[in-house]
Amino acid sequence: MKTRLLILILLLTGVKSYLFAQIEMEFEHSKGIYGPVKLSHSGWKYVDQSDIDKNEIRLYNLDNTLFKTLTLPPKIEGHTPVISFYISETLFDTDSSNIEFLLVYYLNDTDPVVRIAGEDGTILLEEENASTYEIFTTGRYYYSIYETDEGAKLQLRYISNGAYYKTRVFSLPGKYPDEIEYPKVALKESDFVLFPNPSDGLNSIKLDPGRSYTGGSIQIFNEHGVLLRHVEIEPGRYEYTIDNSDLSPGTYLYQVFSPGSISALSAKKVLIVR
Question: Is 39 within 8 Å of 55 (Cβ atoms)?
Answer without folding.
Answer: no
